[in-house]
Structures are given as structure tokens and as C-alpha cells.
Amino acid sequence: MPPTPTTTAPADAAEALARTLYAEAGTRPLRAIEALAALVLNRARASLPRPTRRPGAAPFAPGGHARLPEPGPQAVAATLRDPFLFPSHNPRHPAHARRTDPPPADAALAMCRRIAARALAGALADPTGGATHWHGPEHLPAWALTREAECEIGGLVFYRLDTANRPASPGRPMLVA
Does the global pTM surpass 0.70? Predict the structure, then answer.
């Protein structure tokens, strides 16, 4: 079945992921690129509806509650379109040109394509501990000020923000002396 506006071919999702990895972390070590790919999968997985749990089903058994479905190409493509997750998707960002028009024979882009293929095939381990947010070393976003980092890999800082059990209202403001 050819891709339609509502479906995404796996090759399209892999190329979009590879270009995003290249633009955001192509100059960083291999482990940092792998960590960013794992973050994309974590975000895509978090956006999927939770499977229904059968009462009495053991974790990791069919109908259990411990395993979430693996994200497909559509969920990954939707995650990559998140305007605030990856700055290179902003046309005014300096890395935007690296994402939209990468050099064809760049070794870093080839490495990002291999990592993207491994990530979409489910063969990439998650070194981030389930992180869903990140930032580079050049700036510290306001949301990260009160959060504890999950890990730092290759200069990228990863956070796991669980919002499922939190109220919708913002927290109390902190007093800073």
C-alpha cells in the first residue's frame, strides 16, 4: 500500500529520523546520537494509547500492564513533527539547513541513517532510562531548572518528565533569594 497523507512509510520515517538526528547531534559521539534516537522512541511510545489491562493478567503477559506497544513509523513521524522537541525543525534555527539539505555523502549522515534503522527495528537499547525531554549544553530551558536530569550522554542532557499523575495546574512558584 503506498503512503497516503494519513500513513507514513517506514523508509520515510527512517529518513526523517536520520535527518533530525544528523541536524541535532550529527557532530556528537555515537552514544549521544543513539540516546537521542531512543528519546524519540520514548516520546512516540508515550503518545500511544495505553493498552487495556485484563484483571489478573501478570505483567509482561498478554493483557498485562508492564509492556507498552512499540511505536510504528506513524507515531515516530508525528513525534518528529513536535515543534518544541527538536529546534532544527524551526526554519529560523541554524541547524534547519542541516536537516533539510544534508550533504549526500557525509559519513555522519550515514551513521545517523544506520542508527535510525536500528531504532525503528527495535534493536536499539535505551541508554536514557526512558527520557522524554532533552537539551543541549548551550542553553538551559526554564522547564529544566527544577528537574533532575536522568543522564548526560555526549554533552546532551536527558530528563524523564512523568506527567500522568500530576495535576493540570502549574506548581507553586519557587522563591529564589
Answer: yes
